[in-house]
Specification:
Keywords: DNA-binding, Transcription, Transcription regulation. This protein has 191 residues and is an alpha/beta fold. It contains 7 helices and 9 strands; from the N terminus they run H-H-E-H-H-E-E-E-H-E-H-E-E-E-H-E.
């Protein structure tokens, strides 16, 4: 498996070996050495190849799974799940609709944070279930979540956020959450 020739584990480094594995995998993805859907070595194979404990490799793979960089396929092994967004700060920007005002905010935000980050724009069309599905789908995949919350109630009146949305937003760690444009939401803790 040519994955081994790219993985770099330094015995003399003060950095824990499981972090070295995570860093090496993400670095090689950003360099293009590892491709989407490429099979990764099993936990046992990697631990044998580099003389590491199984727990060390398990810990590294757990972090890679949480970041949605690798996916386990039952009975098959681990595969590279995504090849972009890895070496930069990843931001999910959720807006209710595209308007010139929202695009100005989005563009100004991207301009101010510079090139060391990647921002994905997702539009939820004031739809509560679509918003909740997006949050669930991308849970843990981003470093920061920016939310401009505007929803429509059952009688098509505008509302800041239904209770289910507030509950979902409150599950995002506050240090990763940025609320814009609407401060009427009852978010627990300090943002």
């Amino acid at each position: 498996m040519d994955v081994y020739k790219y993985l770099d584990i330094d015995e003399n480094s003060r950095k824990p070996k499981y972090i070295q594995i995570v860093d090496s995998v993400t670095h090689n993805i950003s360099l293009g050495h590892f491709k989407m859907d490429q099979k990764m070595p099993s936990i046992n194979m990697l631990s044998e190849e580099f003389y590491l404990s199984r727990d060390t490799v398990e810990k590294a793979y757990k972090i890679l799974k949480e970041r949605k960089i690798i996916n386990p396929v039952k009975g098959k092994g681990y595969y590279i799940a995504r090849t972009n967004l890895i070496s930069k700060t990843n931001i999910l920007f959720l807006v209710n609709k595209l308007s010139s005002y929202k695009l100005q905010i989005y563009n100004a935000f991207n301009y101010s944070i510079g090139a060391n980050s990647h921002t994905d724009l997702q539009i939820y069309h004031c739809d509560e279930s679509l918003f909740l599905n997006l949050l669930e789908k991308y849970k843990g995949a981003y470093d920061y979540y920016i939310v401009m919350s505007h929803f429509k109630s059952a009688d098509f009146k505008h509302t800041s956020a239904p209770e289910s949305v507030l509950k979902a937003i409150n599950k995002i760690p506050k240090k990763k959450l940025i609320m814009l444009d609407n401060l009427n939401n009852k978010i627990d803790g300090k943002i």
